[in-house]
Every structure is written in C-alpha cells, then in structure tokens.
Amino acid sequence: MLRIAVPNKGSLAGPAAEMLHEAGYRQRRESKELRIVDPANEVEFFYLRPRDIAIYVATGRLDIGITGRDLLIDSGAGAEEILPLGFARSTFRYAAKPGTVDDITDLNGKTVATSYEGIVAKHLADAGIDASIVHLDGAVETAIELGVAEVVADVVETGTSLRNAGLEVVGEPIMKSEAVVVRRTGADAEEPEVQRFLRRLQGVLVARTYVMMDYDCRVEQLEKAVALTPGLESPTVSPLHNEGWVAVRAMVPADEAQRIMDDLYGIGARAILTTAIHACRL
Ligand SMILES: Nc1ncnc2c1ncn2[C@@H]1O[C@H](COP(=O)(O)OP(=O)(O)OP(=O)(O)O)[C@@H](O)[C@H]1O
Ligand SMILES: O=P(O)(O)OC[C@H]1O[C@H](OP(=O)(O)OP(=O)(O)O)[C@H](O)[C@@H]1O
Ligand SMILES: [Mg+2]
C-alpha cells in the first residue's frame, strides 16, 4: 500500500485534496482526521504540516508527499521533486521599505526576517553577502515596521501583503515555487505503484488544461485544419456521409480553444465544438 503525505493546513491543503479527489482517491471528510486508508486504491494518506512533509518522505517511511517546492528546498531534506502540480504558484523574494535597499549587495550588514531560513541562508552565502537572519513563523512583512529587521524574504503571490505593509521587492526572485510531488532522493520512481499514482495526477493536470475539440471541414482544408489542431499524438479524422467532408477530433490547450475555433472557422471549418475532459491517461 502506497503511503502518501498530504498537507493538512495552509495554502496547499485545499487544492491538494481537491486534486486527489479528482484523481479518484478518497479524501478525509473532517479536518481533524490525521490519516485515512483508501483500500480500493491501495493507498494511505497521512495529513501532515506542509513544512514537515519532505522530512518524513526523506526517511523513506512515507513513499510520496505533496508539498511546496520552496518548502522542500528550505527543509534541506533528502527528497526530490518528481512532478510539478501547477497550483500554489508563488515567487520567493526579498522586500524592504522603498529607498532603503536598491539591490542584493545592499543586504550586507542588514537583518533579514524570514520563515524560510534554509533558502535565505544559502542564497546569501552563494551571493557572498554577510547578513543576519531572524527566523519568524509567519506574517514576516510586519517585522520591518516593528524594527525586528530591515529586510524580509517571503512568499509573494499577488504582492498584496507587501503593498499593505508599504514594502517593495528587491532584486530578482530568489526562486519560483508551486506544489510538487516529492520522493526520497534516489528511491525508485519507476516503481509501478508510484507510477500509477503519478499517472492519475497527470491525468488531472491534462483534464484541467486541455479540452476536446470536434469540427467538420472540407477535405481540401484538412491539412491547414490539422496544423491548427495537431492534438497530442495526431488528430482523429473520420469520413462524413457527405462526400468531400471529414470530421476531426483533437485535444487542444483550453486557454487557446477560442482562438483556435476562430481560426478554424476562418478556413471554413463548421460545427466546431469543445467538450471538457473529465479524466485522462496519456
Ligand atoms: N498566497 C500564496 N499564494 C500561493 N502560494 C502560497 C501562498 N502562501 C503560501 N503559499 C505556498 O504555500 C506553501 C506554504 O504552505 P504553509 O502551509 O506552510 O503556509 P501558508 O499557506 O502560508 O499557511 P499558514 O501560514 O497559514 O500556515 C509554500 O509552498 C508557499 O509557496
Ligand atoms: O503576495 P500575496 O498574494 O499577498 O501572498 C503572499 C502572502 O501569503 C502568505 O501569507 P499567509 O496569509 O499565509 O500568512 P503568513 O505570512 O502568516 O504565512 C505569504 O506568507 C505572504 O505573506
Ligand atoms: Mg503563510
């Protein structure tokens, strides 16, 4: 039975549970449940703090975990990313009061407040900067106002928290993060149970990002049409009862579907429709 660590709280918990549910796995009904078994799918889920997940997975006692790339790197645990999941996207950046820090080199001699000490210590060391770090649990943006630090290093998504604290970003992002599946470094990722779990999640990712497109077009236009909708392997082309026409079916990226429909219409395709994909195995 595959043992999987899932975030129990915070930004990752809701979307992770939703993705697992869409992949057909049983999820807990109540936020106090710490572990559940899904016997039909031969998996057991452990609900853990997102920050601890890479540490558990690194021990090998849990086979797989879902956490943030930033949390994985910050932990320094012996676990590696095996699949990015496309949610909880964020950047990790330095920020300070306007006019106090122009670029990274100005961090020399300053104090940086952060919840991600591992990432910041390494970044400063790699850049050859001598700064002190104050570890705070959260709401680090307030640390500057309260005189605990001159600079913060924190997760930035919309930038609203920084703006509300009267701060602006300094330098380029230290890293980009999103939710990821992690596995103990060096463990066999080819294991059939692990591969089946990854295929299910990939199926959800594809169902979220692609739609199925169907249309009819004249045989003379087929090559142009197929160039617009190449599909993943190659589109399905079937004859229509009306001679000289074919029906075409291909998966297209959901965010390009409307533009592709316009282009297909422009070359004479008709009866163009898209349908949602509910589940998929590539
Ligand atoms: N506003 C946000 N938008 C997108 N991702 C975020 C946001 N805040 C945190 N994350 C991501 O969530 C993960 C952190 O999860 P964690 O549960 O530790 O903190 P949190 O979501 O801030 O919750 P809390 O601080 O309330 O415990 C990281 O991968 C981080 O990049
Ligand atoms: O750029 P934004 O869209 O504002 O998002 C980023 C903020 O979201 C998270 O905070 P959270 O609400 O989890 O509080 P925390 O700082 O206590 O973790 C993160 O720590 C940032 O503060
Ligand atoms: Mg937070």
Automatic annotation (TrEMBL):
<keyword id="KW-0547">Nucleotide-binding</keyword>
<keyword id="KW-0479">Metal-binding</keyword>
<dbReference type="Pfam" id="PF08029">
    <property type="entry name" value="HisG_C"/>
</dbReference>
<dbReference type="InterPro" id="IPR015867">
    <property type="entry name" value="N-reg_PII/ATP_PRibTrfase_C"/>
</dbReference>
<dbReference type="Pfam" id="PF01634">
    <property type="entry name" value="HisG"/>
</dbReference>
<keyword id="KW-0368">Histidine biosynthesis</keyword>
<dbReference type="InterPro" id="IPR013820">
    <property type="entry name" value="ATP_PRibTrfase_cat"/>
</dbReference>
<keyword id="KW-0067">ATP-binding</keyword>
<comment type="function">
    <text>Catalyzes the condensation of ATP and 5-phosphoribose 1-diphosphate to form N'-(5'-phosphoribosyl)-ATP (PR-ATP). Has a crucial role in the pathway because the rate of histidine biosynthesis seems to be controlled primarily by regulation of HisG enzymatic activity.</text>
</comment>
<keyword id="KW-0460">Magnesium</keyword>
<dbReference type="InterPro" id="IPR011322">
    <property type="entry name" value="N-reg_PII-like_a/b"/>
</dbReference>
<dbReference type="GO" id="GO:0016757">
    <property type="term" value="F:glycosyltransferase activity"/>
</dbReference>
<feature type="domain" description="ATP phosphoribosyltransferase catalytic">
    <location>
        <begin position="49"/>
        <end position="203"/>
    </location>
</feature>
<dbReference type="InterPro" id="IPR001348">
    <property type="entry name" value="ATP_PRibTrfase_HisG"/>
</dbReference>
<protein>
    <recommendedName>
        <fullName>ATP phosphoribosyltransferase</fullName>
        <ecNumber>2.4.2.17</ecNumber>
    </recommendedName>
</protein>
<keyword id="KW-0028">Amino-acid biosynthesis</keyword>
<comment type="pathway">
    <text>Amino-acid biosynthesis; L-histidine biosynthesis; L-histidine from 5-phospho-alpha-D-ribose 1-diphosphate: step 1/9.</text>
</comment>
<comment type="similarity">
    <text>Belongs to the ATP phosphoribosyltransferase family. Long subfamily.</text>
</comment>
<feature type="domain" description="Histidine biosynthesis HisG C-terminal">
    <location>
        <begin position="207"/>
        <end position="278"/>
    </location>
</feature>
<dbReference type="InterPro" id="IPR020621">
    <property type="entry name" value="ATP-PRT_HisG_long"/>
</dbReference>
<keyword id="KW-0963">Cytoplasm</keyword>
<dbReference type="InterPro" id="IPR013115">
    <property type="entry name" value="HisG_C"/>
</dbReference>
<keyword id="KW-0808">Transferase</keyword>
<keyword id="KW-0328">Glycosyltransferase</keyword>
